[in-house]
């Protein structure tokens, strides 16, 4: 989310781009929730035709179009488009149940030890050229994942999911038992839901008959696929509801309905994923009617009348995810030795005024975070006994640094020739993100931490922060977060916080590793399972692998003549089922 991974998302922008959950009040909804009003098909007969123009977050390019990805391109926005072209092995509903009707698999039967998983494929799925989706495609995809996960995999690999959900090294074998059955056998027992939601879910079958050009040379095969990953028009054989039409970087990416799709067929003529230079440009495009599914930045709420007067509906939607500030702890990073010290991370956290940011910048549409599970929306994964271990207290933060030998010299904390002077990069394009970065800079200045801000486009941000081999040019990174929408559906944090995590920043802690591993084990009762999960959650909240910021609602803007948007967000995943969206003409608007 191939990888239905918990993908990185840009902070507080994107109409549906931050893992939306239909939970404005903090309560989850069922996958059959049907929102009324704009975005709903209430009292209307769906009709054929029309174009939906879907606004991407500001300065966000789509640049990867394979169902499996590397770290530098592991974003929600790439996957939102890819998921319209390819069906995942498992599609997850808002309530964390599996939607078998939208999954390649029609059922999974696991043994009680959690070591063997029989995956039965639904024979209804076909490739757009008429060939069936079979176990051959699953095995081809698995072999690509194994090859692309190797530490010596050629550029642009390795696969970002390597090491997550027991993929691939924890898997003893993957075998076909016929055209529509595949058996996964693990090397050791695993929590069954964890492996299904974090391991099997990473498989999105790819068309073996079209792409398996080098069956006897997997290194050559992954070079071939990697060289075509950035070309949308390479995807000529698909099994999803849409197929590609065109791709113009810094402009638009266009898809149209796949006429051979065996599921619910889209009625629209096409869907355009629209590049936006800024939030201001996107707002103007909404006003002019050039965008009919978009968003507004919280700083634009005072201007919302310009949209609501034209029939647009604005709906706040919270993700099941977390947003943070990363600390560059990669080996070789200039200031990694500073960030490696827990007391430094504690001081930095206590000097972040998340409450003020939520109130003043996000106008109340944000919830402060204090651990790896957001308090809103409500899920079983939030420990009800966990309290914020590091509330805002700059005085205490400064004292903590001084107790460890740091002294303020010309306004900057200094010790043994080291200075707390850091460069913080952030994802540009969002006014609220920039305002929050400025607020953190001011807060940290109070404790003698001198921060220089450096904005950059989202795709560049991902590339820079994912480069563990050359971790230079940044110390702190702000403006993104993580949607729990793939290996994170069972949100144990292995892909983020474990030593060597594919989407980490060099953080390493043996106790963290131990607690994460314990959440992966099968337990006889749900109570024991959650006890182990809460131990992991509480320790992670205290040890601060990242600095916790806010869980921010996206403010979704929907035109009155675009229907089923809110109903078919599949919001817990951040990947909407766009084939259910449709457009009415002005004479049929309600």
From TrEMBL:
Gene Ontology terms, MF aspect: peptide transmembrane transporter activity
Keywords: Signal, Transport
Primary localization: other
One Pfam assignment: SBP_bac_5
Superkingdom classification of source: Bacteria
Ranges in coiled-coil conformation: none
InterPro entries assigned: Peptide/Ni-bd, SBP_5, SBP_5_dom
Annotated Solute-binding protein family domain residues: 104-479
GO cellular component: ATP-binding cassette (ABC) transporter complex; cell envelope; periplasmic space
Subcellular location: Cell envelope
Entry's family note: Belongs to the bacterial solute-binding protein 5 family.
PANTHER family in the record: PERIPLASMIC BINDING COMPONENT OF ABC TRANSPORTER (PTHR30290), PERIPLASMIC OLIGOPEPTIDE-BINDING PROTEIN-RELATED (PTHR30290:SF10)
Protein name per UniProt: Peptide/nickel transport system substrate-binding protein
Species in which this protein is naturally found: Alicyclobacillus tolerans
